[in-house]
Amino acid sequence: MNAITQHRSVRKYSQKPVSDELLNQVLHAGTRASTTGNMQVYSMVVTRDTEVKEQLAPSHFNQPMVKEAPVVITFCADFNRFNKWCLQRDAEPGYDNFLSFMTAAIDALLVAQNVCIAAEDNKLGICYLGTTTYMADKIIDTLNLPAGVVPVTTVTLGYPAEEPPLTDRLPMEAVVHYEKYKEYTSEDIDRLYAEKEGLEENLQFVKENNKTSLAQVFTDVRYKKADNLQFSGNLLKVLEKQGFMNQ
Amino acid sequence: MNAITQHRSVRKYSQKPVSDELLNQVLHAGTRASTTGNMQVYSMVVTRDTEVKEQLAPSHFNQPMVKEAPVVITFCADFNRFNKWCLQRDAEPGYDNFLSFMTAAIDALLVAQNVCIAAEDNKLGICYLGTTTYMADKIIDTLNLPAGVVPVTTVTLGYPAEEPPLTDRLPMEAVVHYEKYKEYTSEDIDRLYAEKEGLEENLQFVKENNKTSLAQVFTDVRYKKADNLQFSGNLLKVLEKQGFMNQ
C-alpha cells in the first residue's frame, strides 16, 4: 500500500545499476496481472542499451529521462504472438479489429502498473511517458514491432536521484460517483478545482505562460487541440497499419 | 508485492460487507496513480445498490458476480469534468478526439489496477470484467454517462468466499523482449505454449469443446471473430457518440 500512496514520478535517476535479479522480479510482478481470458496479449520491451535509448528519445520529445534512466520499458498491446500460436494450431484468429486492440491495450496497461508498483516497492523510481501514443509510429520503427503490436505506454525506471513532493489531487468527490454518474454543476466545478487552482506552483504556471487561468495552460500550451488532432490521425493510422482496424 | 504476486481473480464473495472506510481507502489508492499531466481524466462509478447492479448485469452477460459482489466499480475515461472546467475558465478544450480518448482510458486503467492491488492488500478479492468494452453503449445508458465519458473496465470487489489457485502464465521469455522486439519462430511458439497446452484443465477444455487444439477453444468458442467485429463496431460508434472521434 505504501508504494501506491507514496508514488511520485521520478525523472532524475542515480547511476546505480538495476540488477538483473531485481529487474526480473519487477517484470515477473507484471506478468501476474489479470488479462482477458488469461491470453496475455501484451509484450514488454526492455531497453537498457545506450544506443537504443538514443534511438527512442526523439519519440519521447527528447525528455532527458529516456537516455538517463538505466531502464526503459515499452509496454505493447500484442496479438502477434497469440495469432502465430493460433495459426500453428489450425485455429483462425479473429483479432484484427478495434475491440481486440482495446483488449490488448488493457492487458498491457494493467501489467505496466504492476511493474511500476513492484518497482517502487523495491525503492526504484518510475515515470510514465504519455508520448508513447503520440509517436507510436516512430516507436514501432525503432523497436521493430511487427503487425499485431502497438506500443501503449512507456516507463523509465531506476534508483531515484531526487525525491519530489507528492503532487496534488482533486478531492475524492471529483472522481468518485456513487451508484450512477452525477453530472457536475458549475458550482461543483468551481469547488472541486479551487484547491488545484490556488496552489502556488499553479498560480506561477499561469503567470509564466501569460494566461488568465490554469485551464488555459492546458488547452493553449500543454495539450493543444491541433496537436491532439494530428496525433489522433497518426494513432488511427498506426492501428490500421498494425492490423487492428479490419472490419 | 505479495498482493501482486498472489493475485487470483475472485468470482465468489462472502456476504461480509465492505466498510465505507475500507472502500474509501481503496478508492484513495486509485487516485494516487500517475495520470497524463496530472489531469485525472477518469471517473470511478461505485455501485452497491442491488437494483443498479441488476441493471448492470446484462451488460456483463449476466456473470453472477455483478449481482453477488458487494461492490461493482466501473472505471471510465472521463474528459467531461475537465472540459466543463475549461469552458468555465475561458479555455477552449481540444479533447474530442481519439488521442484524448486513449489518454483518458490509460488514466482509468492505471487507477483501476491501483484500486485492485490496494483491495487485495486489504484481504478483499477482485475480478476484472472484460465485457465493459463489449457493451459500453448499454453501460453508458445504465449509469447515465454523459458525452466525454466512456467505460473501459469494471471490477467486482468483496471479501472472497473462494480461494482459487494461481492461474498459469506463459514463461517470462514469451512476454519480455530485450532492447528491441524479437520476432517468434515457430519453434519459439511451440516451446512457449507447451506448458499451457499440457495443463490438465486445458486438455479437458479442448476435449469438452470437441476441438483439436486449445487455440481453437479461443478462436471458435471464447473470443470469436464475428463477435469481435460486432463489438468493435459498437465501440467505435460509442467513441463517436461520446465525442471522441471529431477530426
Task: Describe the SSE topology.
Two copies of one chain form a homodimer.
Chain A: H1 2-5, H2 20-31, E1 42-47, H3 50-56, H4 65-68, E2 71-78, H5 80-88, H6 98-121, E3 125-129, H7 131-134, H8 136-143, E4 149-158, H9 172-175, E5 176-178, H10 186-198, H11 200-208, H12 214-222, H13 225-241
Antiparallel strand pairs in A: 1-2, 2-4, 3-4
Helix pairs in contact in A: 2-6
Name the descriptors.
homodimer, 13 helices, NADH Oxidase, 50% helix, alpha+beta, 247 residues
At a glance:
Two copies of one chain form a homodimer. Chain A has helices at 2-5, 20-31, 50-56, 65-68, 80-88, 98-121, 131-134, 136-143, 172-175, 186-198, 200-208, 214-222, 225-241; strands spanning 42-47, 71-78, 125-129, 149-158, 176-178.
Give the percentage of residues in beta strands of chain A. 5-15%
Could you spell the SSE succession of chain A in H and E letters?
Answer: HHEHHEHHEHHEHEHHHH
Fraction of residues of chain A in helices? Answer: 40-55%
Most extensive interface, chain pair and sizes: A-B, 116 and 116 residues
Tell me the name of the CATH class of the domain at 2-164 in chain A: Alpha Beta
- Strands of the widest sheet of chain A, in order across it, are 1-2-4-3
CATH 4th-level superfamily of the domain at 2-164 in chain A: NADH Oxidase
Judged by helices, strands and strand pairing, the structural class of chain A is alpha+beta
End-to-end Cα distance of chain A, whole Å, is 43 Å
CATH architecture of the domain at 2-164 in chain A: 3-Layer(aba) Sandwich
